[in-house]
Amino acid sequence: MHRRHFLLFSAALAGVLASPLADAAPTTAPPLTVFVVRHAEKAKGDDPPLLPVGAARAAALDRMLGDVVLQGIWSSDTQRTRDTAGPTATARDMPLKFYDPRDSDALVKRLKAAGGTHLVVGHSNTVPALVHALGGVKGPDLPETEYDRLMVVVVPETGPPAVQILRYGTPAH
Fold first, then answer.
1. Which CATH superfamily is domain 2-7+33-153 in?
2. pTM of the predicted structure, to 2 decimals
3. What are residue 139's phi and psi, to 5 degrees?
4. Parallel, antiparallel, or unpaired for β 149-155 and 32-38?
């Protein structure tokens, strides 16, 4: 529960810092905030579904983001990413938006045009590229055994983005 409160605090703080004071003229738009995760634990195969532990992680993601107002929920068009984003989309009665995980720059353009706060579900080798395209440091691909990393990227109108790495659900082994 502590992580959820920290996440919500971070998201709220980003909005507060971008909000103008009551008697001051607005100078900047609220920052673009993107929650980026890799799909949850999957079965084997070409386009596998989630394992039961992965379905539990997808539900944990929905719970963690429960108080976050999202403008979009994005998924590559694979069963494991759709299944990871699904509980969050269902809880909000929002459609999934699909993107090409090989073209991070195109997704970033769409996110920036939409503004607001978004969830993006990707893959071990595309999450770092997306964080980099949003202006963060590109780290290495995620290990095949790591499913609990949640990256929060806050992209202000001016200045460098801020990246926070959190964990959600049961710790990955």
1. Phosphoglycerate mutase-like (3.40.50.1240)
2. 0.85
3. -90, -175
4. antiparallel
Distance CA 15, CA 30 (A): 6
pLDDT one-digit tens code per residue, 102-147: 999 999 999 999 999 999 999 999 999 999 999 998 888 899 999 9
The tokens for 59 are 């539900």
Three-class secondary structure of residue 69 per DSSP: coil
Per domain, the residue ranges of the chain are 2-7+33-153
Query: Could you give the CA distance from residue 112 to residue 129 in angstroms, rounded to a whole number?
Result: 16
C-alpha angle 41-42-44 in degrees, rounded to nearest 5 = 145
Structure tokens at 120: 């993006």
Q: Which among 72, 154, 158, 65 has a CA at the least distance from the CA of 110? A: 72
Alpha helices in the chain, H assignment, sequence order: 2-18, 52-64, 79-92, 104-114, 127-133
